Automatic annotation (TrEMBL):
This is protein-tyrosine-phosphatase. Coiled coil: none annotated. Its EC number is 3.1.3.48. The lineage of its organism: Eukaryota, Metazoa, Chordata, Craniata, Vertebrata. Belongs to the protein-tyrosine phosphatase family. Non-receptor class 1 subfamily. Its main location: membrane. InterPro entries: NR_tyrosine_phosphatase, Prot-tyrosine_phosphatase-like, PTP_cat, Tyr_Pase_AS, Tyr_Pase_cat, Tyr_Pase_dom.
Amino acid sequence: MDQDFKDMDSEGRWQNLYIEIRNQSHECPLKVAKYPENRNRNRYRDVSPFDHSRVKLENTENDYINASLVVMEEAQRSYILTQGPLRNTCGHFWLMIWEQNTKAVIMLNRVIEKGSEKCAQYWPTQDEHEMSFRDTHFLITLVSEDVKSYYTTRVLELQNDKTGEKREIYHFHYTTWPDFGVPESPASFLNFLFKVRESGSLGADHGPAVVHCSAGIGRSGTLSLVDTCLVLVSPAPSHL
């Protein structure tokens, strides 16, 4: 793996590889995302999940959400990569988390970036403490919040109002990764990733972790790929 990387880098083949993968992706249909009734569920017109890997909502009339299941079999990792929820899809977002038995949400963007809303405020702040989503019957309560210099960790209580069942969800929020940019330092990024790992949320005991930024492809894909690569190169017999 190390030699392959060095060869790719020294020969300048990254751009060619990107074009090859992009061309292959054109063979995968993404019809459902383009249905008229689903257009207002997409944050960006040019970012849609493939039909074969999209996450399907179960207990709702329309099963569409802009989210994709990514399975890394060799690393025994699964992630759900999704866009920053829109104001009209926050309820769908929490329904997906409930149905997929997700333990952690990993947020890699700010709500507002460069003066534009990149994500709806889908979790309660300390001022309001609770948020209710009547369309999907979920109540979200802020249990705790730990603010660090470059990330914030929250514990949320997710309650299904139909059944009364409650679950504890971790919310890991990296706050210093600019859109179309890179984290301030590799150390801070890795410390954040290891904090997520320590929670056990990426393990096979839970459903896929939900990873999102604004579009759900750049920063989200990078974190998932870095985590997967670290698993594959680690000599340890088991991984958090």
